[in-house]
Amino acid sequence: MHDLPASILVRYQSILFCTPNIRAIIKADKLVILESLEAETEHKDDSETSITVQNVVSDIQHIGSRVHDGHDNGGVTPFEFIVLESLLSQEIHHLSQTSSELTDRVNTLLSSMSSQDVISTAHMQEMIEVKDANEIFLRAATSVKDAISEVLSEPDDMRRMYLTGISAGRPREYGDDDEIELLLETYLKYSTSLTLTASRNLQRLNSASQHLTLLLSSTRNRLLHLEIRLEIAMLAMSAGALPAAIFGMNLTSHLEEHPWAFWAATVGIGMIAFIATQIGRYGLRKARRVKMEQAGLLAGSKHEISSLTHYP
């Protein structure tokens, strides 16, 4: 799929049809399909035609026979309308296939992520790739929809799309374009449905990405909380190690021969470590409470400002 904007341009006795998958020139009695050089090099010889051309020719024959069988009053559908319907049908078919593939990838990815407790790096990479593919598809489907809408908004262009009548010297009057209007509106509905499907897939991926971000943030907060607890424990151990280091110096303190000095020092070191632990926990609780109060004050101020703005 080519990432280029679609357009349907009406020119003098011709219609320029350009979509992400098909590029062609429609005349009153012929159709010219333009293919890229890469597509031409894939053919073994000049007599071999591409799959797109074969499908378009088959559609033209099928639509032509259907229209011929459906006319009971002797009316004839112009050749350019049969070709235009065939090209639009092929483009919508390409987009529908891509939409189905992307929807299946999204469903498979989300079901795989929901069934596992740990989201791997492969899932994240797959989510990025699927999201990029959906964005490209959404741009393509939207460009096709906008191209059809642009033609529908120009009555003069729809009038000049009757190439057979113009070449025969019978141009249509303004407002006498029900056939082409009905044709374009039909495929406008198809393209709108495809854009809605792509938008829903992107919305699901964005919701999953936000949920994944919340999970990662929660995990990071738990790790930070564990790190703070370990730091408090290290602080308590360091505070308890200070008296032990003082007593470990080779200086006379006259406590070496005291009968219960060892037990008193041990209890004192334990009390110092306990007090340091409680101080650290108190500081952690206070910091958390202040943070929550700040968030509550911010929410309250926002609510107060919004209520003041609506005050009569």
UniProtKB/TrEMBL annotation:
Q: GO cellular-component terms in the record?
A: mitochondrial inner membrane
Membrane-topology descriptor: Multi-pass membrane protein
Alphabetically sorted, this entry's keywords are: Ion transport, Magnesium, Membrane, Mitochondrion, Mitochondrion inner membrane, Transit peptide, Transmembrane, Transmembrane helix, Transport
Listed transmembrane segments = 230-248, 260-284
Q: Which domain of life is it from?
A: Eukaryota
Question: Does Transmembrane helix count among this protein's keywords?
Answer: yes
Q: What is its main location?
A: membrane
Protein's UniProt keywords contain Membrane: yes
* Subcellular location per the Swiss-Prot or TrEMBL entry: Membrane; Mitochondrion inner membrane
State the similarity comment. Belongs to the CorA metal ion transporter (MIT) (TC 1.A.35) family.
The name this protein goes by in its record: Magnesium transporter
